[in-house]
Amino acid sequence: MKKRFWKNFFQGSGGKRFAAWQVELTSRCPLRCRMCNRIEYEEFSRGDMRLEDFKKLLPYLQDVAALVLEGWGESLLNKNLIECIRLAKREGPRVGFVTSGKGLNESYIAELLQVGVDFIGFSLAGATPQTHNAIRVNSDLDNLLQNIRIFQERKSRAKVIYPRLHIVFLLLQENIREVPALISLARDLEIEEVVLINLIHVTNSWQDEQKVFAEKSREGYENILKEAGEKARAWKIKLRVPSLSYEEVAVCAEDPLHNLYISVEGEVSPCVYLNPPLPSPFKRIFQGSEFYIEKVNWGNLFHEPLDRIWNDKKYVEFRENWTRRKKYFEERVASLWDRDKLKRFATDSFPDPPKPCQTCHKILGV
């Protein structure tokens, strides 16, 4: 998405220091999704964040607008998920997560309703079982949809609006033609918001071929999304659509200036894509070439205070790099009404993003 995802999706920071923290409660997952980087790595680490460690984060959450309890695993697998939500909500942030729905059942739904979780996103990879189940291997679309219906029924019976349920749909060449049908499905499920996302972390040739974005967007794909958009407007469903063409952005949608990611081990990173539970360096395919990226983390919040990590020299330099890009972009926009400034910007170059981010699709605005 071209705009800051977390800021837009969670309605801004509300004057708080951080717009969003993404906290990984587990790196375990029962699925074998074809677009996941665990497909390439047998050494993908698997573990849960302990409740006593999660409690170490609580003193900071008053400064966080939205807490996303999600990382590289399935959050429902952490036995302490409900208690983590309960404790976090006492500190004030909006709390939720995105899930495959694996492990969800009626009693779990009842607990999630009772604890007052604010938002839940359900990950779909197709509007039909044939497509979804083939991509999200070990998932069952019919079972997932049934659980969403139970959720909506229980909410209606209790006369509550939370959690807000939305669909997250990863666009691939194998499923993009089902997006209009996805909107129809959302209507049937009484889902008010659908978020389409692009494949960012690419690790093998199949994933690279499945990307739907390119230097110039494909007219056929644009038409599919246009049809979906018309359906969504007619049925008053909010549809978030990413760009299908490259357009370098000043600050990527993960917004490392206002957000951060905390791994299951407590490591603090600018975003989830820079600290996967893989050996370092990890492989990334970008623009058809392979790159090996060193994992990025600036400290461990289970053992160090936040200010020491946030003010680490390398972390400060990392953010200052993004700040320079943001300032350059803002000045360039302002120069459109000043010919002298416009001439200068015509010869100047956009400051490079931090090195680990130069080969990430997020920098292309997709």
Essential attributes:
single chain, alpha/beta, 11 strands
Overview in brief:
The chain has 366 residues and is α/β, with parallel strands linked by helices. Helix content is 33%, strand content 15%. Strands 7-6-5-4-3-2-1-8-9 form a nine-stranded mixed beta sheet, with helices on one face. The chain has a two-stranded antiparallel sheet with strand order 10-11.
Describe this structure in words.
This protein has 366 residues and is an alpha/beta fold. Helix content is 33%, strand content 15%. The protein is built from 12 helices and 11 strands. The protein has a 9-stranded mixed β-sheet with strand order 7-6-5-4-3-2-1-8-9, covered by helices on one side. It has a two-stranded antiparallel sheet with strand order 10-11. Helix 4 (106-115) links the parallel strand 3 (94-99) and strand 4 (119-124). The radius of gyration is 20 Å and the shape is globular.
Helical element count? Answer: 12
What spatial form do the alpha-carbon principal axes imply?
Answer: globular
SS content category: alpha/beta
H/E series, N to C? HEHEHEHEHHEHEHHEEEEEHHH
